[in-house]
Design goal:
Blueprint (H helix, E strand, L loop, with lengths): L23 H14 L10 H14 L15 H22 L4 H4 L11 H12 L3 H25 L17 E4 L2 E4 L4 H17 L2 H18 L2 H18 L2 H18 L17 H15 L3 H6 L12 H5 L9 H32 L5 H16 L9 H17 L19
Antiparallel strand pairs: 1-2
Helix pairs in contact: 1-6, 3-14, 5-16, 6-7, 6-8, 7-8, 7-9, 7-15, 9-10, 9-15, 14-15, 14-16
Length: 430
């Protein structure tokens, strides 16, 4: 990916597409700040200072968005802003009606959506730093490698006594021991972008080094993190991409081989329990939660359309106490989103992901790059994994990807291209 398009000589490329050595200041800023924008520490309360900083980071960085006021309007700005306003305000008003919450208490239940604002603050940061596409890609790849290396190191040196079998209600420890064995609860945002990037390189360049990167990242996800949702999402993206990139004749073979390969993978160890209804998978809790949620929504169209909100932790109560049973909206994924935000809210959440996919298609017509492709793959991963892990738990991941797409679009000058033909700038490897 070092060849510039034939209709765009290297000297004519915008600065964002130029290669060369990375600037240390830009790289250090990206590597230090991206983990916070990517919500790496958002659910790791064991690292309390970083956890607290991650929770406050959406508010701390919001003033950066003021820089956007002097710029022409960016793509997706209205959709992101209106989506955020709807998702925060509507369930907050609904909770006042259905759960007798005060408005100011109920709105605190939506702090999990604040990372959506990273679209504006991270975009503003990119405009300040002006990184090249190569520098952006390298920063993501470096962070992915750091997280993978850290997980391997912890897996090798942490004693078995550190893994907890029991823990406080609602607080999952960093080191967990359950029916899946010892596992480490870690955000895999950067490792998966690294994995998808390496898979693209391995497939198109037939490079064993990139294939090794895929295998290592995959092994860490399946054998150390051990998340069923992640396993489904990863394998789904790899199968979809392999089928899409294969020659027509090869696709026939893949149709025969893929089901056998997937059945083999998901018949081993804890992966065999992904579709199990056994108690060790939490299926009973999910089934009862789904029944309670459906019963509460009832036959009232307004509840289904606009949602009923939720009970804020700040009120001292919980949905578990309200329903007298373990009840977690995250466990019932899209039904939980419909419960809290309504069908309209669920559609808004879905449209944020789909907008990123469609916008990438426009961007790829102008600049084709494996790193941008890996970000696109991650959006597909979010949709596939959303049946087990709702996207409302880490909306900052999508917001950062959308901000990168929009930054490259604006920095590449594609807003004002007079020539309707696309050119392809293939950029140096991160």
């Amino acid at each position: 990916m070092t060849d510039a398009g034939a209709d765009a000589p290297a000297q004519a490329l915008p600065p964002v597409f130029r290669g060369g050595a990375s600037r240390p200041r830009v790289m250090w800023c990206l590597v230090l700040l991206l983990p916070l924008f990517g919500q790496t520490f958002h659910y790791i309360s064991a690292l309390y200072p970083l956890w607290a900083l991650s929770k406050a980071f959406p508010v701390l960085t919001l003033p950066l968005a003021l820089r956007l006021g002097s710029q022409p309007r960016f793509p997706m700005t209205r959709q992101v802003l209106l989506s955020f306003a709807w998702l925060v305000l509507m369930p907050s008003f609904a909770a006042v009606i259905y759960f007798d919450e005060s408005f100011f208490t109920s709105i605190t239940a939506q702090v999990k959506l604040l990372p959506i604002l990273y679209f504006f603050s991270f975009l503003a940061l990119l405009l300040m730093l002006k990184p090249t596409l190569s520098e952006l890609g390298r920063s993501f790849v470096i962070l992915g490698a750091i997280v993978v290396g850290t997980l391997i190191f912890l897996w090798a040196v942490v004693p078995a006594g550190w893994y907890k079998e029991t823990y406080v209600f609602g607080q999952a420890p960093f080191f967990t021991s359950d029916s899946r064995g010892h596992r480490i609860r870690m955000s895999m945002y950067f490792p998966f972008i690294l994995l998808f990037f390496c898979y693209r390189r391995a497939f198109f360049e037939r490079h064993l080094g990139y294939l090794a990167g895929v295998l290592v990242a995959l092994a860490v996800a399946l054998l150390i993190v051990k998340s069923r949702a992640l396993a489904i999402g990863i394998m789904g993206v790899l199968v979809i991409n392999t089928f899409a990139w294969a020659r027509p004749r090869a696709r026939i073979g893949l149709l025969l081989i893929a089901p056998i390969a997937l059945a083999s993978v998901f018949s081993m160890g804890y992966l065999a329990t992904i579709f199990s209804a056994g108690s060790e998978t939490g299926f009973d809790t999910r089934r009862i939660s789904a029944a309670l949620a459906t019963r509460f929504l009832g036959n009232e169209p307004m509840r289904w359309l606009f949602g009923v909100g939720t009970i804020s932790p700040a009120s001292g109560e919980s949905l578990t106490g309200y329903f007298h049973h373990f009840f977690f909206l995250a466990d019932i994924t899209w039904l939980g989103i419909v419960f809290e935000y309504g069908l309209i809210g669920a559609l808004i959440v879905l449209c944020l992901q789909l907008r990123g996919l469609f916008f990438y298609r426009r961007l790829r017509a102008e600049v084709e790059d494996d790193f941008l492709g890996a970000l696109f793959d991650y959006l597909i991963f979010v949709l596939l994994a959303s049946f087990f892990y709702p996207p409302t738990l880490a909306p900052g991941e999508t917001a950062v990807i959308l901000a990168v797409f929009v930054y490259i679009w604006r920095a590449g000058g594609f807003d004002h291209r007079a020539d309707p033909r696309s050119f392809h700038a293939r950029i140096a490897a991160p």
